[in-house]
Write a structure and sequence with these properties.
Blueprint: E1 4-13, H1 18-26, E2 39-43, E3 46-53, E4 56-61, H2 67-80, E5 87-95, E6 104-110, E7 115-119, H3 122-129
Antiparallel strand pairs: 1-4, 1-5, 2-3, 3-4, 5-6, 6-7
Length: about 140
């Protein structure tokens, strides 16, 4: 039996005003047993782990996590900490055994107000738009 994983790792810088980070982080800590150094974020899109790193907010998934939840967490962080930076996060969907078409991935560009998504299967759409007959595509 194979295991499937969704993995990502991105560090979003701290804001110049660290009080904004502290306020944002304190609202996301679930209970007294969980510290801001090792927390989870749950929303309608799923679960994602995040930690405070020396360089900033580390949003990470080692075995499984929701890419959508991570993107929304980052966007909420950018808004709460008043950062107008642009964040790029990539992800990989992997499989513990080499199974056909169980590997893909993508990336998302995140701002305070927008997200721009791309994934591995967008190549099929681009080929179709370019006039390639994808009705007989192998491997999709």
């Amino acid at each position: 039996m194979a295991n499937n994983y969704t993995q990502f790792s991105v560090i979003v810088p701290f804001p110049e005003n660290m009080a904004l980070y502290d306020m944002w982080a304190s609202k996301r800590v679930k209970d007294e047993t969980e510290t801001e150094d090792d927390a989870e974020y749950d929303n309608d899109e799923g679960r994602v782990d995040w930690r405070r790193d020396s360089a900033g907010l580390w949003v990470v998934s080692e075995e499984g996590g929701s890419v959508e939840a991570a993107a929304y967490l980052i966007q909420a962080y950018l808004c709460a900490t008043k950062q107008s930076i642009v964040v790029f996060m990539s992800w990989a969907n992997t499989c513990s055994k080499p199974r056909v078409n169980e590997f893909d991935g993508g990336g998302v560009v995140i701002t305070q107000t927008e997200m721009f998504w791309v994934n591995a299967y967008d190549a099929i759409n681009k080929a179709t738009e370019a006039g390639v007959d994808t009705s007989t595509i192998v491997g999709a």
